[in-house]
Amino acid sequence: MSGPGTVFRETSAQPATKSVPFSHLSLELGHLYMEDFVEGPDRLRGHFAAVRPWVDAARAGVGSLPAGKRPRISTCFLIDDYFSRLSTPAELIPPLLAAAAEAGLTIDYLARESGCAVSQPGRRDRAELAESVLHRLVESPPPGSNGFRPPVSRTGWLTNGRRAPSGRTSAALDATGAVWEPPSETGARGHSVFMDVELWSGPEDERTWSCAFLASVWQLVRLGLLRDNGEPVLTPAPWDAKEFPAEWDALPPVVRLNPLAAPFTAYATCSILPARFLPVEHAVRVILDQVHVEPEALRQVTVRSQGEGITVPAAVVDRTSYVFPPGL
Q1: Taking a C-beta distance cutoff of 8 angstroms, is the pair 18, 230 a contact?
Q2: Are the C-beta atoms of 133 and 291 separated by less than 8 Å?
Q3: Which of 109, 120, 131, 230 can bridge 126 by disulfide, Cβ–Cβ 3.0-4.6 Å?
């Protein structure tokens, strides 16, 4: 029935959420800064030599699939061309691929971190990915919250609980008798591990997105959960040229280096990273736990995985896993 509050909307006005292919696992073989590459080929060879045993473990961890099917696993590598550009793709990528091959590893997909901020730098039709994910954040209000805290869209800070109230820390100096209260983690088990995550720095029109926030976008992209007007974002572009360009912006945000690779997007992700990324990835989990994902994108994953007899965790954050090898 219709009534005064009924809203009629043309179906054609709602862009369809296009589906993407899924691997069972997206396995990240590393994420290095430009400074790491400057250390030379030995640094790269050492990285992949340390990663190799954990790649085998991650592959084995997928386990058996229904009907004896083999798991679809794709590998990827993220290069930081957002915070610094000390080298060019032509100089940096060939030694990277050679070091991986020397360890018996194949990088199926190569991605640029700047693509997680803006999907097509230098193009007029570029999609502001980081900005779009920012608008999808739904802060989890801590128990006892009174709404006084400014929203994350204004402050650029996101927490996993309740901050310590600002003000005097001594009851003797406070005429109201207020005393200091510690921060607390929402849903803490016994004791809190409180985190306050900075999403960006700088003025609104010249934001520098934080590593943690871009890494969150990277996880959502690998999980196949982001769309731009219904279209998948950061769709891998095939790369069969013998040489790489001299400018990073001449390289697509994600390139498929292996024409036989399993799909880039996957039901779950595993990232093998140096231990220095542990606090960053803790922040990533705080962010992912508060991102509202399009229901249709989630439904597509559910339907596809159930059709294969696979159970995918309901919470997006539970679809991610990590390995921090010692000495990496």
Answers
A1: yes
A2: yes
A3: 120
Q: What is the pLDDT of residues 23-38, one digit of tens each?
A: 999 999 999 888 888 8
Report how far residue 301's alpha carbon sits from residue 299's, in angstroms, rounded to the nearest whole number.
Answer: 5
Distance CA 322, CA 328 (A): 13
DSSP-assigned letters across all residues of 134-152: HTTB---PPTT--S-SPPH
Q: What is the pLDDT of residues 253-300, one digit of tens each?
A: 999 999 999 999 999 999 999 999 999 999 999 999 999 999 999 999
Q: CA 25 to CA 263: how far, in whole Å? A: 9
Cα 208 to Cα 191: distance, rounded to the nearest angstrom: 33
Q: Where are the domains of the chain?
A: 16-135+201-323, 152-195
Cα 202–Cα 205–Cα 207 angle in degrees, nearest 5: 35
Instruction: Give me 220's structure tokens.
Output: 């959502």
CA 46, 48, 52, 55 dihedral sign is positive
If DSSP codes are grouped into helix, strand and coil, which group holds residue 299? helix
Which residues on neighbouring strands pair with residue 198, listed in sequence order? 157
Give the DSSP H/E element, type plus range, for residue 153: helix 152-155
